[in-house]
Amino acid sequence: MGVLLLSAGGTMLFGTLVAAYLHLRKVTDPWPPEGVKLDLYLGNLLMITMLLSAVTVEWACFAVRRDDRRQASAALGVTIGLGVAFLNLLSYTADQVPFDAASHPYGLVVTALVMLLGIAVGAGVAFVTLTLLRVSGRQIWAAEPSQLRATACYWHFTVAASIAVWYTVAILK
Amino acid sequence: MATADHKRLGGLFLVGALVFLLVGGAVGAVLRTELAREGVDLDIQYGRLLSLHSTVATLLFLLPAWIGMASWLVPLQIGASRLAFPRLHAFALWLFLLGGTMLLAAYTLGRPAFDLAEGLPRPGPDQGANEATSLAIMGMVLVAVSTLLAAMDLAVTVLKLRTKGLTLVRLPMFTWSVLVTCLALLLATPVFLAGLVLLYLDRHFGGDLFLGDPAGNAVWRHTLWLFGRPEAFLVLLPGLGAACDIVATHTRRPLLGEGAARRAMVVFALISFTTWAAGPGVADALVLPTYSLLTALVVLPAAVVALVLLGTTVKGRPQLHVSLLFVSGFLILAGLGGLNAGVAAVVGVDGRAWTTGNLHIVGFGAPTMLLFAALYHWAPKMTGRHSSPKLGGAAFLGLFGGFALLGLGSYLLGYDGGPAHLQDYSFTAGATTFNPLALLGAVLAVLGLVAFALDFVRIAVLRRGEEADDDPYQGLTLEWATPSPPPPQNFETVPEVRSAQPLLDLRTPVESGSRG
Question: What's the complex ipTM?
Fold first, then answer.
């Protein structure tokens, strides 16, 4: 319940930034500014990484329902790996772009979106790590899966936020 | 420091908010002293102090105080022994105290390049980032995150930890209003947070989007209002819930029209989200055609609750208590505000000193009266002692009289054509009469606060005053079934809940089937 409510708040947070992006895009010409070319390949790779992690976190839920602790731990471990890979690639992408927050409105709002997405996914990685420890310590099992469900719910929120950011910045431009 | 007991956390939230109120109130009194006579005494400090005063009033007092009250009371009202996430709540408390302190510290460095009353960021002396602005933004971010976490925890506590039989429609009115407020805050606060992040990045990296660019202005205004407009109304909502519980308790009968009051609170929260534009008097405003209508509409659900309060009082036999004085003070201030809004609509004074009066009467004074009503009502439960009727009466007279005079002075100055937020008025006959009147109000309000502080230090710290029974008012809701003050686990056994007034059911078991 708490994670659901926080995710609703997170949706408002990213929704506001996307709305700001769309507003600035409407009133600023040219948009994106000249000289800014985003590498769609990197954006797509980021997206695929997050989509894969949505599958692995569900795999963990499935394994816990069957009381298969080893599989659940493996699935959560892979999720953490994908999360860290996403953060690494996000940081690399942010380093590659030829602008910063002060360059122009586009730079500001994209920096804000990327920064907050990084924080959200980073918190998700921490959350999944904690859950992995509890699964390993037999504190989460088939009869008591609520923390894993909460973790999965939060992780799906970060995946949805990633999709929203990717669609806004890379597809809509 | 490491406590996770909801009563201690709630108490610390309350103490923090009241300390910030004292700071904001003292600064307000200084500003009023400046305005009371011709000439400029404060020079450039006036703008800084005004900004500090409005920021404290907006962010650091009412909302955190209600969060504190709710943290203390909600688990008791729902028969729970704790909050859903006590450690997270403790984290929220320390974020609030740290954020509030950072915000105050920012004003010692200079005037931040924006404030919540003015709305738009101003160019700083160096057209870029400066320490005061960065510190103020960081402080606001911490306070916003604290609000978000505490609201989430309170909502989950109400939704998940209710005792058996306590359905949502049987929730005590205060808890109901807290649930509605928290759900609304969970949607409104992140918008503000997003705006602050954009503002911080822009200032920190030396950008200029928020330094006069119309596109940046629009973004900031939207994010500020989507949080600020609902928040301005939401600070009243827990007070309305508390007033319902107070009136029902002191009239010793269920509320008349309880269902209507519950629905009205939900409608109130929903409409508060729709008032997020500005009136035509605001510079650079985004004026939506629905703004005036929806702002007027938000009065209707509040009026429904006021009618429920009055109807219950008339039908019952209320026993005089300081908390009821504060509730009646709220009704009078709200009525005064409504009356002036009607007059202002006819003569058209919006955007002048009138607005200052309206802010102090409706936006701040009325909800503050309800907060003090709640503090006095639940004081015996919180401290195990009865507050002093004399000091309580003095606090009421000071605060009610203070807000009334403060508001009235500004209203009258507004009708006289006085502008708002100017350091030095061109002194007309109106200014020389009405500004000292407002100063008198500010002084009275500060004296009222002092009387309140003395009373609560006496019963809560010095442990003096008449000891309170567990159920001193023959209350209706579960918190009165605990010892005064409640032990760490709250309840030995939670009474069975079969209606919205479980303790009344215990006293009159035969009639219990007739109550919903």
Answer: 0.90
